[in-house]
Design a protein that fits this description.
Elements lengths: L5 H23 L11 E9 L5 E8 L4 E7 L11 E6 L2 E9 L5 E8 L8 H15 L8
Length: 144
């Protein structure tokens, strides 16, 4: 697996902050809101889309959910014109929806767990996200 560049890491650090600016106020009103969790984008790796574009695929932990997230790794690429994307990963096909994070940015998100109220800490959330990525990136035949 190829390591991410400093520029890619810097972009990924900005996205949770953008999510918080756009969605945290509403998330706090959600009955599933877990105040022990923050917003974190972790375990991102390079991923080539079927149309040839480069992407960064990883896990998004928020106080209300755990999702797969895909960022197009071409900052000058135009914003999507459609809200849906079906992504083929080793463990199966996953439906993603584009989520705007302000005027110039956004990502594709596939929510996998919609209730993290029983997760005790950000560290537990990070471990859960790591396990999720291991399973998603393993072929369906190798998952027990």
């Amino acid at each position: 697996m190829q390591a991410l560049t400093g520029e890619q890491y810097a972009r990924l650090r900005q996205l949770p902050e953008a999510w918080s600016r756009c969605h945290l106020k509403d998330a706090k009103r959600d009955p599933r809101f877990n105040p022990r969790l923050g917003v974190d984008a972790i375990c991102f790796q390079l991923h080539r889309l079927e149309d040839g574009r480069r992407g960064l695929l990883g896990a998004l932990v928020t106080p209300v959910s755990l999702s797969l997230a895909l960022v197009i790794d071409e900052p000058s690429a135009p914003r999507p014109t459609t809200g849906d994307l079906l992504l083929a990963l080793p463990s199966g096909h996953y439906p993603f929806v584009f989520e705007s994070l302000g005027e110039a940015d956004g990502w594709w998100r596939c929510e996998l767990l919609d209730d993290l109220s029983d997760v005790g800490s950000l560290q537990e959330g990070s471990r859960l996200a790591q396990q999720l990525m291991e399973r998603v990136m393993a072929s369906a035949a190798s998952i027990p």
